[in-house]
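Moderator note: this is an archived Q&A kept for reference. The question asked for a predicted structure of one protein chain; the sequence and the answer are reproduced below.
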Amino acid sequence: MLRRIGVSIVLVWVVATVVFMAIHLVPGDPAELLLSQGGAAPDPGVVADLRTQLGLDRPLLAQYADYMLRLLHGDLGQSMQDDSPVTAEIVRRLPRTLELLLVAALFSVAVGLPAGTAAAMRRGSAFDRISSATAGLALAVPVFVLGTLMVMLFAQMLRWVPAGGYVAFARDPLQHLLLLSMPGLTIGVGLAAVVFRMTRAAVLDVMLRDYVRTARAKGVAQRRILLRHVVRTALMPVVTVLALHLGTLLGGTVLVEYVFNWPGLSGLLVSAVNARDYPEVVGIVLVISVLFVALNLAVDILYGVLDPRVRR
């Protein structure tokens, strides 16, 4: 665990350095680009003043040292649009995106894991064929199409839930959960299909292992074999794939957030890119990267819980 934590800290430092260099290697002067959003060429004196204000006239190494020092203090800078602290805006938006991913993860595990196990245990049956075809269809439908269909069906036709928007949980818990359900399930449908396919393949592979055949030969009950030997071992690749997809979705839920008007982190990233707000872009990318590294660290630790051989 200590070795993994050390590697994760180095990865975070590498990511922070790469993001800093990438922003500074992008063609064009950030100050000039920011001032020329209206189309007219900005005054050179105003550009020079803004460069000084943003610290862009300093040597690159000095900017890097200041950048890393601020990161150590949790300071991601200030937005170029309204001088608001980037950290405060990310802290306000991040839980909303994490809520979507939590609902999607719970749904995908609750549906994909038992369905994939049942399909593997009944390989070649009608249930296996139908569930595999359904999973393939769920993977083929883009999230914005599925989100639009869910709005039409559940919000406009059946009127079970609101079409979109956001209400804080502290203000109205029930309304918050209703508004959260559709975007969370929209992400969760595709994720459940991935979990289903990985679970089915992993269970089929484990069922052919020698220790499973030995347990059957000893007369161990099928349920005990399934729970103690098959599912627990099959969970490892499933956990890996689920963590990778959740990490990717941290910054990739923008279409779902747009369809359901959900003010999360992905929407903030897109607006920051459009406004050429470099401190905000860097801050969001860094937070997403750190969360991705932390998620992979958690998966590595979970491996040791699922499989004693990893601990040894």
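Archived answer notes: The chain is about 75% helix and 0% strand.
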